[in-house]
Amino acid sequence: MGKASLLLLSLVVPFVLLLLPVSRSATVVTHLPGFHDRLPFHLETGYVSVDEETGAELFYYFVESERSPDTDPVILWMTGGPFCSGMIFFEVGPMKFVLAPYNGSLPQLAYNPYSWSKTASIILLDSPVGTGFSYARDVEGYHDIGDFSFSMHVLTFLNKWFTDHPHYQSNPFFVGGSSYAGKMSPIIAQHISQEIELGKQPRINLKGYVVGNPVTGSDYDDNFRVPYAHGVGIISDQLYEAAIRNCKGSYIRPTDKMCARVLNTFQNLVSEIDLPQILGVNCIRGMLTHKFLSEEYTQLSDPSPEQPTLDCFAYRYYLCNIWANDDSTREALGVKRRRP
């Protein structure tokens, strides 16, 4: 999933959290609303406290390997954005939505036979704080969220999670993430590596990190759009050669009129496609992100996103909005209670 798509995946739902004292809790989920059978894999969800001062807690989904959980790798997978929920429906998870016209009932689910859980156990994490079902009791917990606090919260989460799940400590472990989380993966891996060198416990069996379409830096990423568009056939050889000739490798800040003219033509062409899904239909994506918990304790208005058409990739996010905000879903997942 590309950076642009991940920035558009947020659902803001109005509610006030009950200030519950529990720091760590877990729920074994055997059935999910919208899926009519028992889940064909082991699913655990829960909260882990990562900041006592603000009461910040990260929500996770743990899908045990369907092959050999005692020896298969454990992978932490974070979705980019930032502020995009991991859930179990997108990218690497074991479930998917049935893409059918919405009829007012709860969206239906189907098993994803290509899930990474076929060969590995997966921890899908709602991070940073304020993403998905992760939250803080003190509103200050949502302020000053940056790369450092993000990485340290994840490190705290992992240390507590592996302490609570000691039988996975010897399994090979990988930190993984897409888009913005792809940038965070090596940072978190470095923190773990430093703790291993210091002999801290629990000793996580870190083997490496995985990145999917990672963010590197806005100038580098944005500057590469022109050669990428040429490489996949979005723009012609003639336009690409004109860009090289007039912009001299700098496609972000044109220094003369000819370069600006070439880049304007480029922008007009790429505006006709869906950049995150270049083979898909270019349609209204709606301002949807996987941000299910309000960042404020005050009542917020419902964003009421426009419904995409069935052939839009964003239709999945529309269904996710409906499914995740249903009370039966929250109860099944063990999401903490809320007041209207």
UniProtKB/TrEMBL annotation:
Q: What is this protein called?
A: Carboxypeptidase
Which keywords annotate this record?
Signal
Write down the superkingdom of origin.
Answer: Eukaryota
Tell me which species this is from. Answer: Triticum turgidum subsp. durum
Q: Name one GO biological process term.
A: secondary metabolic process
State the family it belongs to: Belongs to the peptidase S10 family.
- InterPro entries, alphabetically? AB_hydrolase_fold, Peptidase_S10
Query: From the UniProt record, which GO molecular function terms apply?
Result: acyltransferase activity, transferring groups other than amino-acyl groups; serine-type carboxypeptidase activity
Q: Which SUPFAM superfamilies match?
A: alpha/beta-Hydrolases (SSF53474)
Signal peptide boundaries: 1-25
Has the keyword Ribonucleoprotein been applied to this entry?
A: no
